[in-house]
């Protein structure tokens, strides 16, 4: 059943107000509640005649059913796609302009490689570029990393604003405080609270006066691995991940925004898996000391995201003194790469060097 089935009946046009009150009193809250019972059950529960029950079922079904589109409509929509800049110009050019709207983009890599820095850089540029339209960014901080990164974000915003004013003196005047107030932060604890957060977010998107341009989930692996940690839960986890990705895609497509999620990596004692991960592929990640790692959440998740960007490193791990100086685990002075492991609009396995600078990520 479509994700639209979770739409509340109060938001469905064509249902009379008196019938709305009757539905609420009978315990029918969402479209799914109506579609999950027969017409006879509706007649008994609502005390209505056959014609009214059939009309109600038809109205709800029409609200939930996906609307078909022609190839011409899809092509026209693609030509109107908006993009979010990452700050790495060759990567943005390779992707056609940056991270596209109406897509779920995944950034995956070892701990300390700069996944959160990447998210902050994209968020900062989205806020600055959308300042005149009061665009907003939603950050779902499941890893609780944002407290330590708030100062870093304001630093990026200040530098990007100064750069914008220097390049365009007539640019929209906006302060760092105003832009920072447009970053909405949710900090769910655990998988259940995270799922509830997404449902609340859908309602907030419908009610928000200013359009959200970016949703960040940092990270999606944290609540999943903490909640589904036994082998017996593996099938349940896959089902939940499929439904979860479908919801993210629905939000991205319906509200014309970009969803950026981060994922973690793990080792494998399976020799076959190690050999599989030794070549450029969707799930391979180069870790510390050239260790071969694989992305978390499995193949089903890998096929579900639209774009997968792998953050890797060529050289060794930074020394403790250097790491503490730059504030991240990897030595930013040495080469790091983003590899396009999966993208429908361009060639895969392209690599782009980057460094973490004061204004975020930049080419090197």
From TrEMBL:
- Keyword Mitochondrion applies: no
UniProt-listed PROSITE patterns: RECA_2
Q: Does the keyword Zinc apply?
A: no
- What keywords would UniProt list here? ATP-binding, Nucleotide-binding
Q: Which GO terms of type biological process are on file? A: double-strand break repair via homologous recombination
Q: Cite a single GO MF annotation.
A: double-stranded DNA binding
InterPro entries linked to this entry: DNA_recomb/repair_RecA-like, P-loop_NTPase, Rad51_C, RAD51B, RecA_ATP-bd
One GO CC term, this protein: Rad51B-Rad51C-Rad51D-XRCC2 complex
- This protein's superkingdom? Eukaryota
The UniProt record lists the RecA family profile domain at 80-265
Q: Which PANTHER family match?
A: DNA REPAIR PROTEIN RAD51 HOMOLOG 2
UniProt protein name: RecA family profile 1 domain-containing protein
């Amino acid at each position: 059943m479509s994700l639209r089935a979770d739409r509340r009946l109060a938001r469905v046009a064509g249902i009379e107000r008196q019938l709305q009150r009757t539905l609420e009193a009978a315990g029918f809250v969402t479209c799914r509640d109506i579609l999950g019972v027969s017409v006879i059950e509706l007649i008994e529960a609502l005390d209505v005649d056959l014609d009214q029950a059939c009309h109600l079922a038809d109205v709800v079904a029409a609200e939930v059913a996906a609307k078909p589109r022609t190839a011409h409509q899809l092509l026209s929509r693609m030509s109107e796609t908006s993009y979010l800049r990452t700050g790495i110009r060759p990567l943005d050019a390779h992707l056609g302009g940056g991270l596209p709207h109406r897509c779920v983009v995944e950034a995956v890599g070892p701990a300390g490689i700069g996944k959160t820095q990447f998210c902050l850089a994209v968020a900062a540029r989205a806020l600055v570029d959308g300042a005149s339209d009061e665009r907003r960014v939603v950050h779902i901080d499941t890893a609780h990393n944002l407290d330590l990164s708030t100062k870093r974000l304001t630093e990026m915003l200040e530098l990007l604003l100064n750069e914008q004013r220097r390049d365009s003196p007539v640019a929209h005047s906006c302060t760092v405080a105003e832009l920072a107030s447009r970053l909405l932060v949710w900090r769910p604890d655990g998988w259940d609270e995270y799922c509830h957060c997404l449902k609340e977010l859908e309602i907030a998107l419908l009610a928000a006066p200013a359009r959200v341009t970016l949703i960040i989930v940092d990270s999606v692996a944290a609540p999943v691995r903490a909640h589904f940690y036994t082998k017996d839960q593996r099938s349940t986890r896959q089902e939940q991940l499929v439904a979860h990705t479908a919801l993210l895609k629905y939000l991205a497509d319906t509200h014309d925004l970009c969803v950026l999620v981060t994922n973690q990596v793990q080792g494998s004692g399976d020799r076959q898996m190690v050999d599989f991960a030794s070549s450029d592929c969707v799930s391979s990640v180069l870790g510390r000391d050239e260790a071969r790692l694989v992305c978390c959440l499995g193949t089903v998740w890998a096929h579900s995201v639209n774009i997968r960007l792998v953050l890797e490193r060529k050289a060794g791990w930074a020394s403790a003194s250097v790491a503490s100086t730059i504030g991240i685990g990897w030595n930013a002075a040495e080469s790091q790469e983003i590899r396009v492991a999966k993208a429908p609009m361009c060639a895969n396995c392209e690599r782009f060097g980057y460094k973490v600078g004061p204004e975020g990520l930049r080419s090197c």
